[in-house]
Model the fold of this input.
Amino acid sequence: MVRYIGTAEMAALVGREGPEAFLIRLAGYLRADFRRWTAFDRAPRLATLSPLGVIELMPVSDAGTYAFKFVNGHPGNPRTGRLTVAAFGVLADVATGYPLLVSEMTLLTALRTAATSALAASALARPGSRTLALIGTGAQAEFQALAFKAVNGIEAVRLFDVDAGAMAKARANLEGRGLSVTCAKSVADAVRGADIVTTATADKARAKILTPDLIEPGQHLNAIGGDCPGKTELHVDILRSAAVFVEYEPQTRIEGEIQQMPADFPVTELWRVIAGETPGRTGPDQVTVFDSVGFALEDFSALRCVRDLAGPGPELDLVPDLDDPKDLFGAMLGRGRALDRAA
Amino acid sequence: MVRYIGTAEMAALVGREGPEAFLIRLAGYLRADFRRWTAFDRAPRLATLSPLGVIELMPVSDAGTYAFKFVNGHPGNPRTGRLTVAAFGVLADVATGYPLLVSEMTLLTALRTAATSALAASALARPGSRTLALIGTGAQAEFQALAFKAVNGIEAVRLFDVDAGAMAKARANLEGRGLSVTCAKSVADAVRGADIVTTATADKARAKILTPDLIEPGQHLNAIGGDCPGKTELHVDILRSAAVFVEYEPQTRIEGEIQQMPADFPVTELWRVIAGETPGRTGPDQVTVFDSVGFALEDFSALRCVRDLAGPGPELDLVPDLDDPKDLFGAMLGRGRALDRAA
Done:
């Protein structure tokens, strides 16, 4: 039998643990897996494009466990009340090839994106960072705020969005969670004096949400909204004068902010910092950028984390359990068997 | 919600319809999809190899529907009571990227393989074929026998396997199903006078299950056991003097019997015959070979068929249903929501 975790169980799991405790736990799994980066088989994602969007399969495995995520990207979905990005994932046993877990990953992806942002900031932001500017208050916003609070000690969050309703939504959701939350009047108003700036906007085109005049020495920029070819958030001059960190360089060169830069623009893969191979931030005035596009390894960590936390529960009969592997027909369709089951 | 079909429901569905009626229905779906072959986006399969086996993701889509199959291949699995090959599949809506169906595909793959064999034989075997030789009586055997009976009018089946127990198993499973079933003493004994010969052996190495001296003019050879690099069943001289048909030429050149032949060895893709673009068998004495390795389009057809047949039933909450797509946090983890669900 294959363990199944649907959206209701995932929400209950995270709610019971508490979002912040879950994000801290998940950041620990991410840290452990980033540290053993070279133990993973990183296959390219397999994308099927259509005029309305993309469906992707993202596999990754180590010697013992295989994972993949099914994820779509359909910018027009909100017009019909659907999510732009929905996802589910599977863990399987490398030794037998049998699936072990099928899990919702829409909520889990939001959590792992935020936990990855916080993990990166713990290596790249100034020690003692307390203020977060959150530009773009869509589906990812509250997860970012709580991850930075739980993992990095952020105390104050300044929200900004061109959609006042979305900003009010994020503020209401964050109320009573131990954060000082304010709505800023502009991007500049939000960014001024912030220790960490997250950009999580959904602009399809090449945007310049942040320009060099807004950036202060020592800020850490967590750029997560630019995540596909043609979609960026930062002005190139910010990248030129910052230390830029990425998840998986070949993928980020295509999908990240650095798609705007020459192919030899220097970047550092985050795992090298987490593993202690190379320094992260090198001084209090350095501007650091985490150019994050999401990576299959993060889904692997998230699925491992939720499987361990969930324990036993609902199961799916996705693979037949046979006495004799050569007798598939007899076990499934043999006399009496099928009728027994239909009855 | 996403429709779910597990092994028990699949067995009940096929049992209720009857295996032969199901195979006829499935052959109809396969025929319809092979006819519109060029409407499909055929991505390569994505294989993750380990010392013990392989895990593959096989996607395919047309303008409206996307499908993928998760399938493993672990030759050592039977030693621990597991299947060498187990599979499940997913249908999704191209317009929204949302999953529509999650289904077991171990039984369904056995059925679609047999239905594809029968569909090919209906275009390639001599009209009036009545006798099938079935070399290799593992998990696929009974499905082959019933598909050829239902779709092609086969009346007599001669079994042969080096494993007498597996041969007895197939014979017992086929008893009382309207076929004359005999166990042959050798491959030659089984093949002599047969109209159609299926080879479904599991030999890992380059085998020569069939040699030219055994083959009679006009026979149709359905070679389904050789399906990966290094694994073949037919002597090259059989291929040299036969008309060879394949599913998808680039894949079969690597995985099929024709991996033994030069890259310019002539083959015909089956869909061209099904679509009426090119003739199949051109005379009563011609030896025809269907060099079948399995193709993602067949899984697409099988998932469509079973979805249509199954109708409403069990569902999975694999994707959240939100009032406001920007308010993932509030809907899943907002005050009261998570606790409500956990209670």
Q: What stands out?
A: The two ends of chain A are 22 Å apart (CA to CA). The longest strand of chain A covers residues 53-61. The domain at 2-107+297-325 of chain A is CATH 3.30.1780.10 (ornithine cyclodeaminase, domain 1). Residues 18 and 56 of chain A are 30 Å apart (CA to CA).
